[in-house]
Amino acid sequence: MNTLPQQLANGLLLGSMYGLIAIGYTMVYGIVQLINFAHGEIFMTGAFGALTVSLILPSGTPMWALVPLMLIGGAIVAMLIAVGAERFAYRPLRGGPRLAPLITAIGLSLALQEVVRNFYPQADRARVFPNLDTTHELGSVTIKDADIFLIFAAAVCMGSLALFVRRSRTGRAMQATAQDPDTAQLMGIDTNRIIVIAFAIGGFFAAVAAVAYGLKYGSIDYRMGFLMGLKAFTAAVLGGIGNIYGAMLGGLVLGVAETLASAYIDNVPGMQQLGGQGWAALWAFVLLILVLLLRPQGLLGERVADRA
Questions:
Q1: Burial level of 60, CB count in 10 A (0-12/13-18/19+)?
Q2: How many Å apart are CA 145 and CA 153, to the nearest integer?
Q3: pLDDT value of residue 307
Q4: Residue 212 vs residues 3, 17, 76, 112, 278: alpha-carbon distances, Å
Q5: How far is CA 193 from CA 14, 68, 77, 168, 173, in A?
Q6: Where does residue 306 rank: exposed (0-12), middle (13-18), buried (19+ CB within 10 A)?
Q7: pLDDT band with cut points at 50, 70 and 90 for residue 8
Q8: Spatial separation of the C-alpha atoms in residues 248 and 251, rounded to whole Å
Q9: Measured on CA atoms in the order 107, 109, 110, 111, is the torsion positive or negative?
Q10: If you average pLDDT over residues 47-62, what whole number do you get?
Q11: Above 70 in pLDDT, residue 305?
C-alpha cells in the first residue's frame, strides 16, 4: 500500500496519454461513424515528425525552445496525414459498404508503418528521443518534467476542445453534423469541411500524445502506434465512443486499471504469473470485455445514434 499513490499517479499519466489519442477515434466516429484504425499510426508519424525537428535543430537548443518546435512539427505531420487519409482514402468510400472503409483503415495503418520503416533512417530500431527526465518529489509521489508536460497538455487540449465544441460556430456545426449530416447539409453546413476539421483535431491530439510519449520514455519506433492505438480505441469504447468527454474518462480509467493490475495482481493467490508490465495489455482488454458485458454503451453512453 505504500506504493499506491505512485501507482495511481502513474495510471493517471498513462490514462491521459490514452485519452488524448482516443479523442481522435471518438470524434471521427461521432461524425462519420467510422473507426479509423490508422489513427495509431498517425500518432506514430507525429512522433517521427517531432523527432525530425529535433534532429534538424542545433544540438545545443534548450528544451524550453525545443519542445514547442517539436510539437509544431509533429502536429503538422500528423494533421497532414490525417487530413490526407480522409480526403483520399475515406471520402471516396463514404456511403459505400461499411466494411470497405474499415479494411481501408487497416491497410492504411500497415502502409504507414512500412513507409516509416523503409524510408525513415534507422526506423527499424528504437530511435532516441529528447526526454525530460528531471524528477520532482511530491510527498510519496515522484514525477518527471515529462509528466508535468503531459498533464498540462492534456488539460489544455481537453479544455480548449470543450470550449471549441460548445461555444464556436464550427463546434456547433460539428454537433449538428454528428446528429444528422443530411439535415445539416440542407441547413447550409459544409459537412465535408466539418469532417476534415474533425480529422485534423484528432491528428493534433495524437501528435501531442506522441511528443509526450517520446519525452517520457526517451525513444520511439515505427511499431509504437499499433498497441497504443489499440488501447486508445479501447479507452474510447470504455468511455462511450462518440463522446469526447467519455474518451478522456475511458483513458483515465484504463490507465489506472492497467497500472494497478500490473503492480498488484501478482499478490493475488494463484495469479502470481499474471502480474508485471508484460501482462498490462491483457488487463486492459479484460476491462473492456467487462464494460461491454455490463454497460455496452460505455461509461458515459454513446452520444451519437447508430445511423446504419
A1: exposed
A2: 12
A3: 40
A4: 24, 8, 16, 21, 22
A5: 32, 28, 19, 15, 10
A6: exposed
A7: very high
A8: 5
A9: positive
A10: 94
A11: no
Q: Is 128 helix (H, G, I), strand (E, B) or coil?
A: strand
Mean pLDDT (whole number) for 55-79: 95
Q: If we measure between CA atoms, which residue out of 26, 43, 8, 9 comes closest to residue 248?
A: 26
Phi, psi angle pair for 141, to nearest 5° = -110, 130
99-119 vs 224-239: helix crossing angle, rounded to 10: 150
User: Nearest-CA neighbor of 275 among 264, 259, 288?
Assistant: 264
For the chain, the farthest-separated pair of C-alpha atoms sits apart, in whole angstroms, at 62
The helix/strand/coil state of 277 is: helix
Q: Compute the distance between CA of residue 299 and CA of residue 107 in angstroms, rounded to an integer.
A: 30
At 267 the pLDDT is 65
Residue 69, CB half-sphere, CA atoms under 13 Å: how many? 15
Pairing of strands 141-144, 219-220: unpaired
- Measured distance CA(217)–CA(219) in Å, rounded: 6
- Map grid coordinates 468527454 to a residue: 245
Do 96 and 214 contact (CB within 8 A), yes or no? no
CB-CB neighbours of 242 under 10 Å:
26
Q: What is the Cα–Cα distance from 200 to 192, expressed in whole angstroms?
A: 12
How far apart, in Å, are the Cα atoms of 223 and each of 116, 218, 291? 10, 15, 28
What is the sign, positive or negative, of the torsion defined by CA atoms of 281, 286, 289, 295?
A: negative
C-alpha Rg value of the chain to the nearest Å: 19
Phi, psi of 137 (to 5 degrees): -105, 125
Q: Which residues contact 112 (CB under 8 A, 6 or more apart)?
A: 38, 41, 42, 44, 45, 81, 225
